[in-house]
């Protein structure tokens, strides 16, 4: 029997990697997409249009803020597995749009859980929870760590996390919360810090300028520590969470913390540049409340799921810069020679 999966957020970084993984495993995949006046399918279209996937990937219009569309899609797809990856996922933006962030990220999860409870109660449900929920609690953070969110995004995701646990306990749904630490890739949105850095390093190496009037890269807090892994590996962990005998929540992380400054050094040195010559800071990019240090302990995922992150932060920085250089028609060795 072909398994059917429904992915919200299929046009995002993780959604595109997860769709690829599930199609490779033989699933029929259904994805929720938002109507947009401009193109928002750049990550999913190469997968959607690939001849091997013809008739196996369906896209449906919908929105996490619209329960009618969610109910209709759950009924139409009749999924065995539901992955709720859609979210207003930018922490800084959540300070500017706290109400919308809560509607999409907290109540949106409840809208979808309710649609699943009523129309596909045997489906297994994955909620994209986040290390941002730990906020101010010092590392190493694991499944039992106290939550102290520091942003409207973190608070909304924590609401969705507990709603997921509650649907499991109250209604017996196979519902799990994957608490994932930062994971990045060449498909990462361009306003997240790692991609901002990899793009700037590639542009400066290839053209001499990051962008804008000064040609420099403008960042906020360089001291923040994050546990950066490779997104393509993390979607395998999501899938494994839905294949267990009993539902449980898991942290996915590398266990290694690096500062934003370290990531600048890794990315710029790959193309023979000194980051200190090209990075400036601006309070505009500093958040009203910061999360100083996130470093995860994923030993529960290692023992129960057999999942382990394998790409180091250095490898990640290099593969992201290389992908951005390739898009500009350059290579890291050629760029380093010019630097
Ligand atoms: P992303 O690239 O920002 O993708 C977010 C997806 O959600 C996009 O497909 C977006 O659609 C969709 N979306 C946003 N608002 C929506 C709404 N109201 N209704 C329906 N769809 C909506 O995020 P990601 O990095 O892949 O992350 C996937 C999930 O994991 C998110 O829930 C995020 O909060 C969570 N998470 C991410 C990380 C990380 O480090 N990447 C770590 C922990 C947790 P458009 O393409 O139309 O914008
Ligand atoms: O890349 P970021 O925006 O990621 P952040 O805030 O950690 O959130 C990401 O990871 C979460 C998991 O912990 C996800 F849940 C969430 O959806 C998202 O994927 O910022 C990382 C760090 C922060 O401390 C930020 O203050 O980098 C710092 N930073 C410094 N300058 C900057 C900048 N962040 C951004 N986006 N832009 C800057 O110019």
Q: How do the strands and helices of this protein lay out in sequence?
A:
Blueprint: E1 4-8, H1 13-24, E2 28-33, H2 45-48, E3 57-61, H3 67-77, E4 81-84, H4 91-96, H5 98-119, E5 124-130, H6 152-171, E6 174-180, E7 183-184, H7 193-207, E8 217-219, E9 225-226, E10 229-230, H8 231-241, E11 250-252, E12 258-259, H9 260-270, E13 279-281, H10 299-305, H11 313-327, H12 332-338
Parallel strand pairs: 1-2, 1-4, 2-3, 4-5, 5-6, 6-11, 7-10, 8-13
Antiparallel strand pairs: 9-12
Helix pairs in contact: 1-8, 3-5, 5-6, 7-9, 7-11, 9-11
This protein binds NADP nicotinamide-adenine-dinucleotide phosphate and ligand G4F.
Task: Characterise the protein shown here.
Helix content is 42%, strand content 15%. The chain is built from 12 helices and 13 strands. The strands form 4 sheets. A 7-stranded parallel beta sheet has the order 3-2-1-4-5-6-11, with helices on both faces. It has a two-stranded parallel ribbon with strand order 7-10. A two-stranded parallel ribbon has the order 8-13. β5, α6 and β6 form a beta-alpha-beta unit. The longest helix is centred in the first third of the chain and has 22 residues, at 98-119. The protein is globular, with a radius of gyration of 20 Å. The chain binds NADP nicotinamide-adenine-dinucleotide phosphate and ligand G4F.
List each distinct ligand once. Answer: NADP nicotinamide-adenine-dinucleotide phosphate, ligand G4F
CATH homologous superfamily caption of the largest domain = NAD(P)-binding Rossmann-like Domain
What is the CA-CA span between the terminal residues? 56 Å
Given helix and strand content, the structural type is: alpha/beta
> How many structurally independent domains?
2
Tally of DSSP helical segments: 12
**CATH class placement of the largest domain:** Alpha Beta
Task: Tell me the radius of gyration.
Answer: 20 Å
Largest sheet: 7 strands, parallel
CATH topology of the largest domain: Rossmann fold
Strand residue percentage: 15-25%
Along the chain, the helix and strand elements come as: EHEHEHEHHEHEEHEEEHEEHEHHH
CATH architectural label of the largest domain? 3-Layer(aba) Sandwich
């Amino acid at each position: 029997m072909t398994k059917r999966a429904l992915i919200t957020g299929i046009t995002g970084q993780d959604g595109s990697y997860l769709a690829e993984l599930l199609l490779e495993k033989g699933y029929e995949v259904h994805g929720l997409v938002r109507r947009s006046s401009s193109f928002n399918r750049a990550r999913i279209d190469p997968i959607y249009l690939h001849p091997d996937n013809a008739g196996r990937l369906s896209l449906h219009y919908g929105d996490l803020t619209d329960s009618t569309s969610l109910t209709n899609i759950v009924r139409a797809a009749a999924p065995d597995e539901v992955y709720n990856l859609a979210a207003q996922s930018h922490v800084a933006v959540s300070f500017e749009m706290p109400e919308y962030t809560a509607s999409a990220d907290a109540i949106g999860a409840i809208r979808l859980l309710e649609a699943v409870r009523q129309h596909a109660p045997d489906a297994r449900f994955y909620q994209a929870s986040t290390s941002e929920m730990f906020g101010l609690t010092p590392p190493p953070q694991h499944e039992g760590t106290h939550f102290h969110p520091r942003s409207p995004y973190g608070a909304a995701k924590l609401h969705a996390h507990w709603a997921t646990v509650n649907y499991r306990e109250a209604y017996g749904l196979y519902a799990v919360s994957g608490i994932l630490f930062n994971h990045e890739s060449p498909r990462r949105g361009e306003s997240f810090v790692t991609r901002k850095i990899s793009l700037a390093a590639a542009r400066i190496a290839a053209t001499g300028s990051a962008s804008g009037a000064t040609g420099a890269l403008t960042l906020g807090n360089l001291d923040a520590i994050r546990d950066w892994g490779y997104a393509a590996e993390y979607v395998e962990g999501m899938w494994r969470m839905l294949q267990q005998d009993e539902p449980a929540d898991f942290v996915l992380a590398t266990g290694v913390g690096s500062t934003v400054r370290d990531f600048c050094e890794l990315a710029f040195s790959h193309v023979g540049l000194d980051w200190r010559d090209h990075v400036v800071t601006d309070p505009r990019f500093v958040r009203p409340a910061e999360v100083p240090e996130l470093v995860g302990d994923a030993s529960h995922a290692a023992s129960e799921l057999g999942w382990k992150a394998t790409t180091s932060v250095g490898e990640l920085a290099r593969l992201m810069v290389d992908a951005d250089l390739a898009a500009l028609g350059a290579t890291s060795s050629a760029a380093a020679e010019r630097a």
